[in-house]
Structure formats: C-alpha cells, structure tokens
Design brief:
By secondary structure, this protein is of the alpha+beta class. About 65% of the residues lie in helices and about 15% in strands. It is built from eleven helices and eleven strands. Strands 2-8-10-11 form a four-stranded antiparallel beta sheet, with no helix packed on it. The protein has a three-stranded antiparallel beta sheet with strand order 4-5-6, with helices on one face. A two-stranded parallel sheet has the order 1-9. Strand 4 and strand 5 form a beta hairpin. It starts with a helix and ends with a helix.
Length: about 500
C-alpha cells in the first residue's frame, strides 16, 4: 500500500466512525468509488489470487535452474552383520567360530589316521591333524572377525544437485502457462475494479435519481397544499364548489403517498449504495447532483477493432488461447527425449571405500552422471497430444466468436447512450413546456379563468415531465458508465 492509499485508509476509518455516529455522509461519486475499492472483499481476494499467480510464475522459472537437496539417515541395529557363518563345511572338515575344527573321516588325513592305527605313524599323523586344524580354525576365526561389519550405528548423508538439460520443452511451456495465468489474474483484478465501479455508479445514480424524484414529489405536494388552501378559500367565498375541494384533497392525498414512496425508495437506495461502498446500511448519503446532466459525447463511428482488442474479456481469451497452445506443446514433450544431469556427495558409516570400516573418519565420495530417457512407443502420449491440439483449435474459434460478441456489445452500448441523450433533449423540452404551461395555468387560475381541475392537470403534467427528465438523465449516466467500461476508461 502506497503513501496515498495509507492516508486514504486512515481518513476512511475516521469517516466510518463519523458515519456510525451521525448516519449522514456527504460524498461525491469519486469518493464512493474509492471507498468501494478500498473495502471490497472481492477486490482483496483478486489481489491475493494475483499474488499467487505471480509466485507460481516465479516457481515455474525456478524449475529451470539447478535443484540442490540434502538427505540423511541414521539407524541403530542390535546385531552386527557377519559375512561368514558361525559354522562352515569345507569338504575336508567342518570349521566353527571359537577355534574349533573337526576333520572329515573321508579326508586324506582322516584315512591316513585310520590306516596307520596301531603303527608308529599314527601319532605323528594325529599331531599333524591337530596342528593343521588349529591353523585352519585360527585363519577362519580371523576371517570371521574381519568380515564382521559393525552396523550398530549406520549413518548415510547425501548432498546432491539435479539440473534438467533438455525436457522436450516441458519446463518452457510450464513457464509460459504460469505467465499467462498471471496475466489472467492481473486482467481479472482490473476487470474486478471496473465491475465494482460499475456497481457503485449504478447505485449512486439511483440514489441521485430517487433524491431528485423525492424533491419533485415534495414540490408537487407543496403545490397541491397551496391549491387546496386556495380552493378552500374560494369555497368559503362561493367561487368554487365543495366537489372541487374534494377533488383537490384527493389529489393531495395521492401526492402525499407518492412523497412517502419516494422517501422509502431513497432509504432503500441509500442502503444499497452503503452496501456496495462497505459502509453501515443506515448511512444517509448527501449526493452531488452536478454531474447528472452531463454525459460523454457518443460517436457514430467507433474503432471497434481496437476497442475490442483492449477489452479485458478479449485479453483473457488470448491468454487462454496461449495456455491451450502451450498445453499442446506440453503434451508433445512426452514424445521427446529427456536429459537430466546430477551430481552428489555421499557420506556413509560404515564406509566401503577401502574395505568395510566404522571409524567415523568422514569417508565419502562424489558421484556424477547424466540420465537420458528416449520414448519409443507411447501411444497414450500421442493421443493426448492430438486431443490437446484439437482443444487449442476450439479455443481459437471461441476467440473469434468472442470478438464478434464484444464488438456488437460495444456498438449497442454506444447506441443506448445516444438514445438516452436524445431522450434527455426531448425530456428537457417537455419539462420546459410543462413548466411554462404550469405557470400560465397558475396565472389563469388566480384570474379565475380555469378551474382547479385544469390546474391539477398542469401540475401533474409538470411532475410527469420532470420525472421523465430525471429518468432519462439517470439512464444516460448508467449507459455512460457501461460504455466507459467497454472502452476501458474506468
């Protein structure tokens, strides 16, 4: 929020507190617009969506750069790993841990021991068997100890880098999609502002219109009250009948009802405007009616092509078309090779760099490589690509259709404003004529040349002409706001 917005927000808080205390607020159309934009929940939601789209675009861009990650793991084991068993059959004998070895009777030494039994050679062979067996058992015990891996505490740590080299354009298209999504969010935010201003303008000029009609109803009621007093005096002087007085009284009663209806309508219109502006519903607005009679000049020949191209709806459709085209290219990326490079440093304990060691000396190693994946027969990817391409063609056709609709919409809005301006000219002429007729009727009634009924007809005609002028002016202001919205001037 910039400096001016901060000042306005502070002023708005003070203004809201004043409204809560006094229930009366004097503001212009620009003030109502600013309040609605500052307090609109939909505007805040659109701003959050815009920021989310911005970060998604940055994330898609960051995916093209190296990704660094670290992994680590620790495990405790109650037993160690032994590559040799507690007992191993060697063919000529059986060796076991604990320096135990037994010869197989069918072995060479075993047969010699049997054949030399009872001779002088028997004992030397037995001694040889014991000595050789001891050597074998000692060697096995040493091998058993050496091939026992200490895995009571196991630690693995890895720091690696992954860099996509070529992904068939997948990352590029994902970035383009995210960028178009961000553009759509920005366009929607601007369009939401225009919608808020449009709603404020309609509610504001409705309040102005009802306030003007309320003033007309009060003036009409005042005229009838004066006429009632004049007719009552005429009845007392014998210059009018009681029937004339009753007609005036009935008309004055109708005027009082219209005045009450105008007051109720003003209350409801003010509540609607307060709701749009985010103010308490009981707020009473003192509006500025100076701009009611002023509308922008219309043109018989609008540059429909440039105006349509600048419309938010058209801009969003173009971004949607870009997304559809990117989706088609994204589907085609599944048919192209993928190349990814990676490098990492791995530390393990126990270490297997030079045998198996558990010395916690920080033994580790580097590894680097390139992975290549080449699709050969992926029928599903081909079908998805064809589907995405047809979807993109459908969006292109919708863009052309949208262009025609928006051109027609802008032209119709321009024609409606032109018709409203013509209505204003006719209504102003009718009101001027009705005002002159009313003046002449009042003079004729005072001179006794016309009856009270004739004067009431002139008053009613004046009220109708004045109301039609207010309606025409309000319609013109609403149509002007709508045309400005289509022209991108809000």
């Amino acid at each position: 929020m910039n400096y001016k917005s901060t000042i306005f927000a502070a002023a708005l808080l003070c203004l809201t507190s004043m409204v809560s205390a006094q229930d009366t607020l004097r503001c212009s159309l620009a003030d109502c617009r600013q309040m609605a934009l500052e307090l609109s929940q939909s505007g805040k939601a659109q701003e959050e969506m815009r920021k989310a789209a911005e970060y998604n675009r940055k994330a898609a861009l960051a995916a093209m750069f190296p990704r660094v990650s670290a992994n680590g793991g620790y495990r405790w084991n109650s037993k160690n790993a032994h590559l040799l068993g507690d007992q191993t059959e060697l063919g000529f004998g059986t060796v076991s841990t604990g320096n135990e070895f037994s010869w197989n009777p069918n072995s060479l030494l075993g047969q010699l021991e049997q054949h030399t039994a009872g001779t002088i050679f028997h004992q030397p062979i037995v001694n040889l068997e014991n000595n050789v067996g001891q050597v074998i058992s000692n060697a096995y015990q040493q091998a058993y100890d050496v091939l026992t891996v200490d895995i009571e505490h196991v630690l693995v740590a890895q720091v690696g880098v992954i860099q996509p080299i070529y992904t068939g354009g997948r990352l590029t298209q994902l970035y383009k999609i995210a960028k178009s999504t961000e553009q759509i969010a920005n366009i929607r935010s601007t369009a939401n502002h225009a919608d808020i201003i449009m709603a404020v303008d309609e509610a504001y000029w409705r309040v102005v219109s009802v306030a003007e009609k309320k003033a007309l109803a009060e003036e009409y009621y005042r005229l009838l009250c004066k006429l009632e007093d004049d007719v009552r005096n005429a009845v007392e002087e014998g210059m009018a009948t009681q029937s004339d007085l009753l007609k005036v009284c009935a008309k004055r009663g109708d005027a009082e009802v219209k005045k009450l209806q105008a007051e109720n309508g003003l209350t409801l219109s003010s509540m609607a405007l307060a709701q749009v502006c985010g103010l308490p519903l009981r707020t009473v607005f003192l509006t500025d009616t100076e701009g009611l009679s002023e509308t922008m000049l219309t043109s018989d020949s609008l540059d429909a092509e440039s105006i349509t191209a600048a419309r938010s709806e058209m801009q969003m459709m173009h971004e949607v078309e870009k997304i559809a085209r990117s989706n088609a290219k994204l589907a085609s990326a599944g048919l192209q090779p993928n190349i990814i490079a990676s490098a990492s440093y791995i530390y393990t304990n126990p270490s297997v760099e030079n045998g198996v060691h558990s010395d916690w000396q920080g033994r580790g190693f580097f590894t680097a490589g390139v992975t290549v994946n080449v699709p050969i027969a992926h029928a599903d990817a081909i079908l998805r690509y064809k589907a995405a391409r047809h979807a993109a063609n459908a969006v292109s056709l919708k863009v052309d259709e949208m262009r025609e609709k928006l051109t027609l919409q802008t032209t119709q809005a321009n024609q409606r404003l032109l018709e409203a301006q013509q209505k204003i000219a006719m209504a102003q002429l009718n009101k001027a004529n009705a005002t002159e007729v009313l003046r002449m009727a009042e003079e004729s009634f005072e001179a006794g040349m016309i009856t009270a009924s004739d004067l009431m007809m002139a008053q009613t005609a004046w009220l109708s002409a004045a109301s039609e002028l207010v309606d025409a002016q309000t319609e013109a202001k609403t149509n002007e706001t709508q045309l400005r919205k289509y022209l991108g001037q809000l």
